[in-house]
């Protein structure tokens, strides 16, 4: 078996979209619904951790002025070719400077925020958001919910197995999750096999486990007012969000959805 810190899916954007299809653009539609519901001061949107550009492209077609940002050159190249319209730039969510007050909303989907593994990285992200947003600007984020793992083990008890076929090759992944309580991380080991004769590949990654009250506290410290923080419905919940769905009043499911507004009086 080959062990690597690379990521089969994020290093191969077309494969990523095949593994996580979104033909109805649920993530983009949910994000646009949030923007309409909570009304940022203008149409300028930064999609940080934009990946393949699928959601940035949808927001562009919905009439937003969109910049997609990611660290992966492979993702950015794919996004420019397959989801044109937004401007795509290379940037690190741990700390970015794309212009002071250059955006009216910062969007961070699919647990990208949870790659802020340390407090310094999370502070760097929120400091960058505060600098980048116009007064009254929004953060819209969607991620795993740390609170879900308080006493619940159904995602930890046994490996999960999934598979799909792309361009004639069958891929199979076996994923094991465990909680690193000291680091407050959800660590993932994923073993990929394919029927094309290539050797198995083991990949390791992790997400920060953030809890609802913790998020409220750190956002307030950076000058943001939380407008909504709830478990569903959303683009990754079961059942997924549909047009007209209202946010729940709970925050104990396995996904967490956040909308926060930059308090104008606290903007530097």
UniProtKB/TrEMBL annotation:
Domain of life of the source: Bacteria
Signal peptide: none
Molecular functions per Gene Ontology: methyltransferase activity
GO biological process, one term: methylation
Family matches, as Gene3D superfamilies: CAC2371-like domains, Vaccinia Virus protein VP39
Record keywords: Methyltransferase, Transferase
EC category name: transferase
Record flagged with keyword Transferase: yes
Claim: Methyltransferase is one of the keywords in the record: yes
Pfam families in the record: Methyltransf_25
EC number: 2.1.1.-
Domain Methyltransferase: from-to ranges: 45-137
PANTHER family on file: JUVENILE HORMONE ACID O-METHYLTRANSFERASE (PTHR43464:SF23), METHYLTRANSFERASE (PTHR43464)
Protein name, per record: Class I SAM-dependent methyltransferase
Record lineage: Bacteria, Bacillati, Actinomycetota, Actinomycetes, Kitasatosporales
